[in-house]
Amino acid sequence: MLSLMQLDIGGAETHVVELAKELKRRGFNIVITSNGGAYVKELEDAGITHYRVPLQNKNPLNVLKAVRQLKNIIKEEKIDIVHSHARIPSFILGKLHKVMKFPFVTTAHWVFNLKYGLKYITDWGEKSVAVSEDIKTYLMDNYKIPEGNIQVTINGIDTDKFSPDTECDDIKKELGINPDDTVIVYVSRMDRSRSLVAKQLIDTVDGINSVVDGLKVVIVGGGDDFENVKNRADAVNKRLGRECVVLTGARTDINKLVAPADLFVGVSRAALEAMAARKPVIIAGNEGYIGLFDEDKLQVGIDTNFCCRGCAQSSPELLAADIKRFFAMGGEERNRLAQYGRELVKKEYSVSRMTDDTMKVYEWALSKKKEILVSGYYGFKNSGDDALLKAIINDLKKYKESPEIVVLSANPRETISKYRVKAISRLNPFKVIRHMKRAELLISGGGTLIQDATSTKSLMYYLAIISLAVKKGVKVMLYSNGIGPLNNKRNVKLASRVLNRTDVITLRDPAAAKTLDTIGVKKPWIRVTADPVFGMDIADKAHGRAVLKSFAVPDSERKILGVSVRRTKDTDAEFEKKIARLCDYAHEKYGCYTVFLPMQPSRDEAVSKSIMGRMKSRSSIIDKRLDVYDMISTVAATDLCIGMRLHSLIYATTNRVPLIAVEYDPKIKSFMEYAGQNMCLTVKDMDTEAGIAMIDRCFRDYDAIKSELSECHRKLKEKADENGRIAIELYEKGSVGA
Questions:
Q1: In what order do the strands lie in the sheet with 680-682?
Q2: What structural domains does the chain harbor?
Q3: Whether residue 651 has pLDDT greater than 80
Q4: pLDDT at 559 over 90
């Protein structure tokens, strides 16, 4: 069942009509519900059932009547899937969906008013279709719909119906178009929210008429502003002493009305239909102005679904200038514009592609896929863990289209906003249990979750989540984990027992595998891979330099030393003096400017600022939390990295930045060994002279080290890519092959 407010002239209405006819051709039994309108006959002629339901407004009596009718139609027609195309039908059907449990899909054709609480009565169904990328972004930003629940499609155009071969002699006769007339056609609803350009076009007629022979402007459409548009047209016709502007009112034979045009003006679907008919087009509407369409305007057209959202406002002056420019062109150039438009529509905007996209969403909704829960140290404003979550989500999407990801987060609102997935509070037992019932797979990780160095409490939490998943029959995968240290014997015993009940464990380095073997974990399928962050793309160094500049880092050719430190029980005053000395040495010997990179500001800023206070040379600090992309780009923009935080070292390795590690935890040394790097200092016994020698070596062997890091990154990226494949294999098959 396709449901919309009404079937009068409009882009969304035409979209539904074309979709319905193509679905019918593919064997679907189609039912349409709306308040009726001009397109009902076309649908019925195509053998498609239409039910008249009062869905055109928010009148409470109409809403109640619509609820009863829709409920009966869904039952009597045995509807398998419901697809709504407007706010009011979506609201009503959303309520019925919760009771009747039918698969429910919506399409967003436009952006809606969010004021007066309207945002909260909008229902976007289980899955959504967006007719452009900017509408997809609008849905994610304003309604927090996960990215995986949205399919972007196009306004599919029937290029046989809208064709340069369309016969239109009857239309020419009806509208009084002579063989020598110059015809401009405009198509849109004449509602107050859509009629701006119709009025502006009429305002240009006096000026255009003086330079174009036999001008005839045909304006197609009806609506609540029709009389105002007509009055303006009548005034122009009276001044000119002839019927230069013709208003047709609402029509369904748009293909015939477009056929006589020398030039078309309009937006969205109407503009694409005119292109399909091989007509040059000026794209202009209430939302903005793109202008005379050619190759240079393609990207902005695609980005806004040819609706001009965010573009400069339309005006009579802009219209007149482009119209005059077009008619000043030679015939060859006009033909080139016309042919380009038709070829574009045939290639990129077919009804077939639109229907394929829609059917994909139907398959998503009908499959009722189970969720993938992701548990880790997420929502704590730590750049390394933010990067892990982003990498895991990217990994899963590589191997599974539209995965149902739900993250257990300390800050669900932020996680939803930043990562475009569903998220729940990691400490809400009711929500965790509810989603365990819906899940097929629990991913625990990445990071070093199975350790008691931080606290036994943290270890107990992650083991409890794993145990709950096992109890609920959910498959469990430790995703590229580090393991240990585990110091408490009771913790070792408990961890061994719980981990032996998991299905798959991938590990980020061989040391973690050794720890698992030591504590007796042997039953799961175990593989050493690499940290998921290695699977992310190499960052943009130029962008990183721009970020550094915004934090008062000099924008010059001088070298940048990036330093990532954190507070531990061993980072005393002596440690701070030694790090300060290394930074000053890099400045004195190599001209390095030091910038401190707090990966988790709450734990890193204070110690960073204390070291800065002990330095002789100037330095800067990134004293604002950066998103993952900005932080990785910032590390990429440095020339040397001294890092305590594991992911500062991973960011450096990924981007071929020579690095010196400062070990405060065994995972740092394990990583450096796995990456084939041996420049590692220790927090407890910081050796300043050894650090100076390492700085010297980095700059002496700079190109060789970068080459080593490049090869290291290539190998670790290959291993990291295995994580997502293994996870999806476990999710879909219930086990992992040899």
A1: 619-621, 593-596, 560-564, 640-643, 659-663, 680-682
A2: 2-152 (3.40.50.2000), 169-348 (3.40.50.2000), 367-534 (3.40.50.2000), 541-717 (3.40.50.2000)
A3: yes
A4: yes
